[in-house]
Amino acid sequence: METFAFGSNMILHGRAPGDEEKVNRWTMKAAFRLLLLLILVLISEVNGQRQKPARKPGRKPARPTPEPVEPTELPPPLPPGPPSVFPDCPRECFCPPDFPSALYCDSRNLRKVPLIPPRIHYLYLQNNFIDNLPEESFKNATELRWVNLDNNRIKKLDRRVMEQMDSLVFLYLEKNQLKEVPSFLPANLEQLRLSRNQISKIPSGVFNKLEHLVLLDLHHNKLSDGVFNKNTFRGLKNLMQLNLAHNILRKLPPGLPSAIHQLFLDRNNIEGIPDDYFKEFPNLAFLRLNYNQISDKGLPKNSFNLSNLLVLQLAHNKLTTMPFINPKLEHLYLNDNSIEKINGTQICPTALVTFQDFSSDLENVPRLRYLRLDGNQLKPPIPLDLMMCFRLLQSVVF
Fold first, then answer.
1. Which of 20, 64, 318, 334 is the most exposed place for a label (fewest CB within 10 A)?
2. Largest Cα–Cα distance of the chain, in whole Å?
3. pLDDT of residue 355
4. Angstrom distance (rounded) from CA 142 to CA 171
5. How far apart are CA 203 and CA 200, in angstroms?
6. pLDDT at residue 8 above 50?
7. Chain segment 345-369, per-residue pLDDT in tens
């Protein structure tokens, strides 16, 4: 081994045996440590990028804005259709080529009524967002016979519009926002449908000139006992069907038209029937009083002994006995009451003949064909005297 000295420094010029192997081993260890350090740095970098930014102390994360229950704006009107064969046809409506007197503007997201051509007799405007009937739209439509405005947002009818519709026969205004029966209705009306509004008032004399009206539908409104008096329906000389179901009546309304054939009073709060109330309606054939509060106490014996009555519905009331009926009644619904026992002899509208006479002349036996008694407190079997009385029964739900 040779040594060179320069002052106090000494440089190793030669190596002892085994020194080179030690140097290589040390170099490899140093390289491995460096590589390991680089790997750890890279891993911490990646993890740092994946982590969410830290929240500032005291601040809560912003919640997403909830979706509105109903749309805040009305949907846009539908785009205009192709040109019609009729030059006067509104572009937002449809004029069928083979039905020139009809105009279909229904279900088109309309906000207002387009200009109605004078040739139109049948106008369909249901399922839109119309809130009024402007006089301008109907100035030429003097021959209208049928107008359907169901499911809109109409609160009131313009007097000037109604007075010029002299030929109108059918007016449909169901599911709107009317608060009272419209006044100044055309005198030739035959059907007036006002169900599913918010009607709580019937103006005095509103029906006085409607002697051609045969159908008046007021079901599912807010009509109470105080709305009706003996003159409310004056003028309705030919009314055949009256629907007052699903209101808030506690009593039967006075002064109903005597010509009535069908009367619907179900889903009110009616508790009783005055003596001889239905005797005023000699043509009454269909009577519906389901879902009321009628009990035996509020039901005189001969309330339903009506010669023309064919269908009587008294389901979902508070009856404990079966009411007396006329021999001509064909359908009787008494389900879901509190009836515990039936005496066929007492309720039979004709003298009960003996069982041996079953094959005798059936011309004078009661005409009842359908009887529903389920939902009461009755126990089988069906009483024999009931079957002997109503010999024409085809179906009994017991």
1. 64
2. 155
3. 46
4. 14
5. 10
6. no
7. 888 888 765 545 555 566 778 999 9
Q: What is the 3-state secondary structure (H, E, C) of the chain?
A: CCEEEECCEEEECCCCCCHHHHHHHHHHHHHHHHHHHHHHHHHHHHHHHHCCCCCCCCCCCCCCCCCCCCCCCCCCCCCCCCCCCCCCCCCCCECCCCCCCEEECCCCCCCCCCCCCCCCCEEECCCCCCCCCCHHHHCCCCCCCEEECCCCCCCCCCHHHHHCCCCCCEEECCCCCCCECCCCCCCCCCEEECCCCCCCECCCCCCCCCCCCCEEECCCCCCCHHHCCCCCCCCCCCCCEEECCCCCCCCCCCCCCCCCCEEECCCCCCCCCCCCHHHHCCCCCEEECCCCCCECCCCCCCCECCCCCCEEECCCCECCCCCCECCCCCEEECCCCCCCCCCHHHHCCCCCCCHHHCCCCCCCCCCCCEEECCCCCCCCCCCHHHHHHCCCCCEEEC
Q: Which of 9, 11, 23, 20 is nearest to 1 (CA)?
A: 11
Q: Could you give the count of Cα atoms lying within 13 Å of 378 in the half-sphere of its Cβ?
A: 24
Q: Are 344 and 386 in contact (CB under 8 A)?
A: yes
In the chain, the amino acid numbered 82 is P
Dihedral sign (CA 352, 354, 356, 357):
negative
- Amino acid symbol at 160: R
10 Å CB burial of residue 364 (0-12, 13-18, 19+) is exposed
Q: Tokens 């939902």: give the residue.
A: 375
Torsion of CA 156, 158, 163, 164, to 10 degrees: -120
Q: How far is residue 125 from each of residues 133, 141, 181, 308, 316, measured CA to CA in Å?
A: 11, 14, 20, 39, 38
What's the one-letter identity of residue 158? Answer: D
The pair of three-digit structure tokens given for residue 119, joined into one six-digit string: 């040739």
Read off the pLDDT of residues 112-140 as tens digits, 9 standing for 90 and up.
Answer: 999 999 999 999 999 999 999 999 999 99
Note the pLDDT tens digit of each residue in 340-349: 999 888 888 8
* CA distance linking residue 20 with residue 238, whole number of Å: 127
Taking alpha carbons only, the member of 352, 360, 357, 336 closest to residue 386 is: 352
